[in-house]
Specification:
40% helix; alpha/beta; 13 helices; 2 domains; disordered N terminus
């Protein structure tokens, strides 16, 4: 018995599959990276670039671009893919909206992307903090386009409306994965609730004849099939989503879900083709695509007015 135990204890865990060639990243300009880092630290801000260990951090920071993360660095949810710390968050930093606006000004951004941790500990999920941040960014940077990547606010329509009242230019909420994998990938979220949020935002946009675009994204490589992603695309078009992003899931550390497979660039390209056929106004689909990757280019390559006028329900 003791010998058997020794043999088991000496058994090495299986090695991770090596990343394919197409997942190599660009290191970029260290001078610009340091500029962004010092600015963020000086204003006591958090970025999803750091907290989520984004593979594009070097490229984006070299371009003096960062995605700001509201609400601190601790999330109340337990998603199986995310590197952000889980637990009980501290109090909101009431200076954070102003500091984000100042960072946007210092970086001279034409397109600012803002996201947040989930704050289920707050009555409105942090929606009022979101709205204040959007308004502060607009007040200090009137020419800057504002894209928000929001949580689901537990399906609270009033919380969503508080964000929409602040009039973001792009309303993004990620679907993250197909419905079948939700319990494993997003145990604290609901697939239908995500679609409802996106549809509500689009309906209000259409009713008010605003130019806001809606957007959602997923990660590939968690066990989904090609056709399941196509079905998800159809669901997003039924919810009048304008822009979709699809990227390769990369395990941030050993305590998160493993990569089931590395999707080839050819398959990502095919998803983009299918998405454009379904009526999306832009599909960003590649191994290194993330929600905010090339966000400015995505919006500038599509017309908000056309998105409202030509939005179609796809029910194939």
């Amino acid at each position: 018995m003791s010998r058997e135990l020794r043999v088991i204890s000496n058994t090495k865990p299986p090695a991770r599959a090596p990343k394919p060639e197409w997942l190599k990243i660009r290191l970029g300009n260290p001078t610009n990276q340091n500029h962004v880092l010092k600015l963020i630290e000086g204003l006591n801000l958090h970025t999803v670039c750091q907290e989520a260990r984004c593979p594009n951090i070097f490229e984006c920071w070299s371009d003096r671009t960062a995605t700001f993360m509201l609400g601190g660095d601790t999330c109340t949810r337990h998603c199986g893919f995310c590197a952000v710390t889980k637990g009980t968050p501290g109090a909101l930093d009431r200076d954070e909206p102003r500091h984000v606006a100042e960072a946007v000004r210092h970086l001279n951004l034409a397109h600012a992307v803002i996201t947040s941790v989930n704050r289920d500990d707050l009555p409105d999920g942090g929606a009022s903090h979101w709205a204040e941040t959007i308004r502060e960014v607009r007040a200090l940077n009137p020419e800057c386009r504002v894209e928000v990547l929001i949580p689901d606010f537990n399906g609270d329509e009033a919380a969503l409306n508080a964000v929409l009242d602040a009039q973001p230019d792009v309303l993004n909420h990620n679907t993250e994965t197909i419905a079948r994998l939700y319990k494993r990938v997003r145990p604290d979220a609901k697939y239908d609730q995500t679609l409802t949020l996106l549809a509500r935002a689009a309906r209000r946009r259409d009713a008010e004849k605003r130019g806001m675009l809606t957007k959602s994204g997923i990660m590939a490589g968690l066990g989904e099939t090609f056709d399941e992603v196509v079905e998800l695309m159809k669901d997003l078009r039924r919810a009048s989503v304008d822009i979709m992003t699809i990227g390769q899931y990369l395990q941030p550390h050993a305590r998160r879900l493993p990569v089931e497979r590395y999707v080839t660039p050819e398959e990502f390209a095919r998803w983009r083709e299918v998405g454009m056929e379904l009526g999306f106004h832009h599909v960003e689909s590649s191994p290194l695509t993330r929600s905010s990757y090339h966000a400015r280019q995505q919006v500038e390559g599509t017309s908000a007015s056309d998105a409202v006028a030509e939005s179609v329900a796809v029910a194939r």
